Amino acid sequence: MSMITRSDDYVEYCRETAKQARDLHDLALRGRDKKETTRRTHERIVEIVGLGAADDLVDIGCGDGTLLHMAKKAGAHSSIGLLATSEEVDLVRKTGVDVRQGLADRLPLHDQSASVVVCNNVLLIVPREKIPGSLQEMHRIAKPGGRIFVGEIPFNKPNDPTPQFFGRGEYLSHLYRKHGFRTWFGMVRRMIWWRLKRQPEVIRPGTAVSILCGAGRIHRPGQKRWP
Question: The domain spanning residue 53 has which CATH number?
Answer without folding.
Answer: 3.40.50.150
